[in-house]
Every structure is written in structure tokens, then in C-alpha cells.
Amino acid sequence: MNIQEYISSGIIESYVLGLASPEERAEFERMCALYPELIKARTGFELSLEKQAFENSVPPPAETKEKIWSAIRHSSTKGPSKIIPMEPGKNKFGGLRWFAAASVILFLLTAWLAFSFYKKNGELQAKIDRNDSVINAMTRGDKIMHDPNVMVVNMVGMKGSPSSASVYWDSTSTDVYMVVKNMPKLPSDKQYQLWALIGSKPVDLGLFDLPQSNNVILKMKNTQKADAFAITIENRGNTGGPDLGQMQSLGKAKL
Amino acid sequence: MSNNPRYSEQELVSRLLRQDDQAFSYLYDNYSPALFGVINQIISNKEATADVLQDVFVNIWRKINLYDDTKGRLFTWMLNIARNAAIDKLRSRSYQDSLKNQPLAENVNTITANSVITPQQNDIGLKKQVGKLKEEYRVLIDLSYFQGFTHEEISKILNLPLGTVKTRIRSALIQLRTMI
User: Does the distance separating the beta carbons of A57 and B173 come in below 8 Å?
Assistant: First the structure.
């Protein structure tokens, strides 16, 4: 079959009107690529069909155009633009990028929270420790003060010294505690020292600084015997005997 | 053509590909009456015809990227979308139910040449031309083009050999070509 016979075989009309089979369509498209006159003949039929359709136009209902616009806008799928984000590489990259950004943010947030909790936990632990020591001291004080075996020795200020304190001596356990009531502050190179006077011999019961608040019970060194207790002012870290000239308070133990 | 397009077909297509609202508005204004006329030749119900026209233009908007100008003109592409949409509507249960006095076309084997629409006074365009063909050609074009039956289905409906159906349709098309 030559090309003129093919053109006049009805294939053009069949193809343009959508009546050709898939095989006929494929063949026709191959032939169009080879024969420009076939395309020319096809366009000729298309134009006559188009002309006839325009000549037989029927105006559609006025509201149809608006319905079409709202259908397009409502679905918001703008034809070809719907295809663009479907490119697999681009889409995949975009997804990963967002995922990565979200991961970094999540990591930073987690790290910040962990640090905050760690810091807060430390603060709370310190507070608990402080409270525990206060409770322990109070419990201990309460126990000592109400223990029948504990002797209370009120220390009296010497030579007009306003110093006053109480020594609690447990004759059973030999524990010695002291509660400072009112003692003057010392220079930083000085410390108070508690002594037990056994006979006339002083025995060291420990150096101490003034506690930050009154009524705090200080645990001193134990002694089995004591006729009296004395408090002197000594150089910081004194290892020698008492400077009795600096005696602040004295209290006799009444056994 | 009855009107003067402001855009060339090529320019119109490239604007539609860029989602140009103005171009789409122009496309509708320029082509919808012609396409509405074509749909009317397949479906008689006015309301259903408007529904089909709406579907057709929404599809054109969404699928303009599928249009290939090496395979034909823009109008031909739109014409085929309109024809296919109209035939889908014609065969839909809802449309068939709306035609109360006509039998359902559920099974093509029950369709006979008697159900082929006879030429009517108000037929327009291509359908009017088809009506002028001799009976054996008119029936074939009506079943294939206006009702969308395949050659195999027509062969069963008319109880004709498949080869005869194909040859006669080609002959009918050649004759039709001289009439439009």
C-alpha cells in the first residue's frame, strides 16, 4: 500500500475520531513520523471536524463555568503542578531534610531537658542533705536533752564575759555535746576550745568555731571524767595546753 | 471557526501548562459551546450534559500535561475527552435509571440494532451528517462513535463477522469525510 492509499483508507478519520484500535493508532503514529503528507491530511480532517463542531455550538448553562472553577479550586490540585512534587528524588530529599531538621531539634531539646533535670536534681539533693543534717541535729538534740543519763552543765561567763553555753555530758556513753547560746565572734586566727577539768588538770575536748546559728548541738570529744568544763580562746589549731588567762566560761559538773 | 482566538494553540497550551487562569478562562469561553454541542449529540438530557461538560473541563485543566501536539490538534484532544466522558455518562447506572422508558444496556448481547437511535429532526453537526449515510453505515457509526461500542461488541450486536464490521466502518468514515 502506498502512502496515498493509506491516507484514503479511512485510517485518518478512524484515528482522529478515536475509533482506531491500539495497534492501528501505533502504526498511524509511526507513519506520521515518516510521511509529512499524512500529518497534513490528518490536520485537514481535524480542522474540518473542528469547524463543524464550532458551527454546531450549543451555549452551555451560565453557571457551569463557575462550577468548574470551584471544582478546580476545591480540589486545589493544579494539574501539572500536581506532578512536580511527585518527582521521587526531590520528594525523598525533601522528606529526609525535614526529618533531619526535626531530629536535630529533638536532640537539642532532649539535651537541654537532661541538663536542666541534672542541675535541678543536684540542687534538690543539696537541699535534702541540708535538711537531713538539720533534722538529725534536732533529733539528736531532742534525744540528748531528754535523756536522764545526760548531765547539763551551764557554762557561766567569766569576768563579765557575756559568753554562755551549755555542755551536755552523757555519763553512760561518755559523749559530750555543746550548745552555744551567746558567744562573741572571734578573729579568724582564733578558735574556742572546750576543756574538761579533771582535778585541776585540763583535758582537751576539742576546738570549735561558732556555729552559724544558735542552739546547734556540737559533738565534742568524749570524756569519762570531768569535775568542771571550761572554754578558752586559743590560736587556731591549738595543740598545746589551755591559755587559762583567756578562759571565757566555766561550769562545774555536779556528780 | 466562528471566532478569532487571541492565543495561538501553542501559546494557549504553554499558558495552560503554567496554570494560567486567564488562559483557562479563554479556553472555556472559546471552546465550551462547541464541546457542549458535541456532548449533546451523545446525551440528550440537558442536566447530564452540563455535568459532563464540567467533568471535561476539570479533566482538561488537570491533564493538560498529557496533551501531545505531535498526535493532533488541541481541539481534537479535547473532543475525544468530551466524547469519552459523554459515553461513560451514557453507560452509567444513574443515567440509565434516568431514562425510565428505555431498557438498561447492561449486557451488550441484549442490544439490538433496534435500539440504535434513528435520525431526528433536531440532530446537529456530525450526527446530522451521519444520519445522511446509508442505513448500514449509519448504524455502524452510531454504535461505534456515538455509543462507544467496540468492533467486537458491534459484531455481536449486529450478528456480523468482525471483518465486515471493520471494513464497513472504514467505508462509512471515508464517505463521511466527503460530507463534512
Answer: no
Q: What is the ipTM of this complex?
A: 0.86
Interface of A with B in 89-118 (CB under 8 A): none
Residue B149: closest C-alpha in chain A: A19
DSSP state of B115: G
pLDDT tens per residue across span A50-104: 999 999 999 999 999 999 999 988 765 544 444 444 545 445 556 677 888 888 9
* Amino acid at residue number A119: K
Residue indicated by cell numbers 476545591: A74
User: What is the tens place of the pLDDT at every residue in B85-139?
Assistant: 999 999 888 888 777 655 544 444 444 444 555 556 567 788 888 988 988 899 9
What is this structure's pTM? 0.56
Q: Which of residues 65-94 of A touch B (CB under 8 A)?
A: 65, 67-68, 71-72, 75, 77-83
Please tell me which of the candidates B73, B124, B145 has its beta carbon nearest to residue A43. Answer: B73
- State how far the alpha carbon of A200 is from the alpha carbons of A156, A160, A196, A229, A244, in Å: 18, 23, 9, 11, 12
Burial class (CB in 10 A: 0-12, 13-18, 19+), B131: middle
User: Where are the alpha helices (H) located in chain A, listed in sequence order?
Assistant: 3-7, 11-16, 22-34, 36-55, 64-75, 79-83, 88-146
Ranking A71-80, B14-23, B27-36 by mean pLDDT, the lowest is A71-80
Q: Which tens digits make up the pLDDT trace of B35-56?
A: 999 999 999 888 899 999 999 9
Using the beta-carbon criterion (under 8 Å), do B70 and A13 form an inter-chain contact? no
* Cβ contact, residue pair B28, A68, below 8 Å: yes
Q: A-B interface: how many C-beta pairs under 8 angstroms?
A: 135
d(CA A206, CA A194): 6
Residue B49: list chain A partners with CB under 8 A: 60
Which chain B residues are within 8 Å of A52, Cβ to Cβ?
Answer: 125-126, 129, 180
At CB < 8 A and 24+ separation, what contacts does A70-76 make?
A71/B54, A71/B58, A72/B58, A72/B61, A72/B62, A75/B58
Looking at chain B, which residue has its C-alpha nearest residue A55? B2
